[in-house]
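Lab notebook page, bench 4
Experiment: in silico fold of construct C2
Operator: M.H.
Input chain length: 178 residues
Purpose: comparison with the prior construct
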Amino acid sequence: MNDTYDDKPVRDLSAWAVDRLEEALATARDGHELESIRVIAQSRAYGCGDPDSARLRWAKLSLTANKRLPGGTSWNDARKRCQNFALRIWIIQHVGPGTDPDWDPEALAADTLAALPLAPGRAHSLSTGWHDLPAERIGELRRHKNMTAHVDHLVHLIPSGPTKDRLSAWIDVRKHLP
């Protein structure tokens, strides 16, 4: 995994209000600062006591910072997707689904399935002998496992049909992935 950033000191952003962090995000270019904003905003979205509207604003800020983080490698892209999926399912479960696509279970299901290059059957067949696979293929299976961590919470929110069937298949396959 390539998560190297410049070794510049990062400002302490933990006590900043959401509007100030939104302004900082608009000009942030440094990976450390983007990750700090993402983590702080995610923590505030999860935090107790705030009204739902404030939690949603914090969650949007976290998703935006996450989107701007460096990507371009399979591990960085998967990490970003995992962060995105985990926050979205948490908001859907604790604040509730909404009309915004980020809080729509069916949109999350579509985004999840689109992020998985392997079909569940192929992933399952590869997982039976994963110890003998090259490291790159094991990594691919591991990324699939990570990117489906939220699916068992999501599947119950999806109406019967092909999407629900595919999510259910991933729940079964996930148990066998390295």
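Observations: The chain has a mean pLDDT of 92. The radius of gyration is 18 Å.
Next step: discuss at group meeting.
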